[in-house]
Amino acid sequence: MGKTVLLVEDEQRLREIISDYFRNEGFEVVGAEDGKQALALFEQRVIHLIILDIMLPEIDGWSVCRQIRRESTVPVIMLTARSDEEDTLLGFELGADEYVTKPFSPKVLVARAKTLLKRAEGAVAQSAEHTLSVSGIILNRLSRTIFVDGQEVILTHKEFELLMYLMENRGIVLSRQHLLDHLWGYDYYGDDRTVDTHIKKLRNKLGTRARHISTVIRVGYKFEE
C-alpha cells in the first residue's frame, strides 16, 4: 500500500507484534515509545495513519492527539487498556477516528486501519473536487470555507461568491458589469460601485494575498497567480 503508520506504544513487545502485522500487509511502520518522540517523528515524516496508545511516558496520548489535530486531519486510532465510556468520548472529542480497547487482535487492528485509510482517501478525493487552491488561498465550495496561508477567513455570502468566481476565471479580465450580471443577477438595479465596494472588503480580508486581485483600469478585475 505504500502508507506509513506511526505506531505510538510504550510496551516494546506489543509494538513489535503490531509492527510485524502491518509490515506484512505492505505498510511502513515508524515506532515511538513515548508522546514526545511521537510528536517529533510526526514533524519529520510524512505519516498516513497514527496508532496511539493513551497511557504514555513524557506526554500522554490525549495531549499528542490534541496537538496533532491542531495541524492535521491524519487518521488516528487510539489504544487503551480501559473500557471507560468517558475515555472513549474524550478520544472522539479530541479528534480520534477509531478507539480500540486492549487486548485486541492485531489482524482486526490492521483491517480497521485499512478501512479508515480508504475512508480518508475518499474524503480527500471528494474534497479535492470541490477545492480551489491558488497562491496560498484555499477555497472549498462544499464546506464554503476559505483559508489564507493556513488561517481561516470569514467571508459574507457575496464575498465568497465573488472570490470563487474570480478564482475560477483566474487570468481573465472580468468587467464590473459582467460580475454584476453573474453574481447579482440581470435584474439588479444598483451601479457597478457595488462591485468595487465588495472587492475592497474582500481585499482587506485577504491581507497580503489581496495582491492577486488586480484592478484593470476602466474595465474591471482579474485574479492573477
Secondary-structure map with pairings?
Layout lengths: L3 E5 L3 H13 L3 E5 L2 H10 L4 E5 L7 H9 L6 E5 L4 H9 L4 E4 L4 H24 L1 E4 L2 E4 L4 E4 L2 E3 L3 H12 L5 E2 H9 L8 H14 L6 E4 L3 E4 L2
Parallel strand pairs: 1-2, 1-3, 3-4, 4-5
Antiparallel strand pairs: 6-7, 7-8, 8-9, 10-12, 11-12
Q: How do you describe this structure in short?
A:
This protein is an alpha/beta fold and 225 residues long. Helices cover 44% and strands 22% of the residues. It has eight helices and twelve strands.
Question: Descriptors for this entry?
Answer:
8 helices, 12 strands, alpha/beta, 5-stranded parallel sheet, 225 residues, 4-stranded antiparallel sheet
How would you describe this structure to a colleague?
- The chain has 225 residues and is of the alpha/beta class.
- The protein is built from eight helices and twelve strands.
- The protein has helices at 12-24, 35-44, 61-69, 85-93, 106-129, 157-168, 176-184, 193-206, and strands at 4-8, 28-32, 49-53, 76-80, 98-101, 131-134, 137-140, 145-148, 151-153, 174-175, 213-216, 220-223.
- The strands form three sheets. It has a five-stranded parallel β-sheet, sandwiched between helices.
- Strand 11 (213-216) and strand 12 form a beta hairpin.
- Helix 1 packs across helix 5, helix 2 (35-44) packs parallel to helix 3 and helix 6 packs across helix 8 (193-206).
- It is elongated.
